[in-house]
Amino acid sequence: MRTPAPQHTPTQLPAHLSEKAGAGPLISEQELEMLLTHQERNQRQGVDPGFKWRMNFMLVALLVFIVWMLIFPGFIYSKLQFENGANKLAPVLPFRGYLVLSVLVVYYFSYWRDWYFERVALITFALALSSLFMDFFNVLGFALGPIPPLVVVFLLLRLLIIYCLFMNAIHANRAPPAPRAFWRWLN
Questions:
Q1: Which one of 70, 116, 119, 141 is CB 3.0 to 4.6 Å from 97, fit for a cystine?
Q2: Can you give the pTM of this predicted structure?
């Protein structure tokens, strides 16, 4: 008569192979890390709980920026009060809107499909930071008088977005495991 096989869960080793039986560990921690996929390594490290909130905040804020740059550029021209009018800046804002839209699409595609997200997050952070510094010299340098309060609010919002990009870049290895969703706020 056959004896029944010992019952164990898939993550638990059978009793005759466990460390309690004196056999020792089957593989070392370094070998286990090499065998695990990227997604399994992330699950072992834990997921950053603020990741989904930063991603959703950035999506909403960047969509507001894009709408203002593509649909209402005249409002932005009037708020900056340039000395020679908006002639030199007229092609810049729609171009910047399309650039931000394309970077947003690549960033969120990379996040959603887990397609080199660590690299894309770092490159996006560097692009956003350098873009902010360039805007201080190229756009705000030509404005007359004090900077209007609405422009200051948008600069602070941009700094907050750059902070979120930085946090996502350094915590990219702790992003929620794929498949990822944007519209589920509570999971």
A1: 70
A2: 0.68
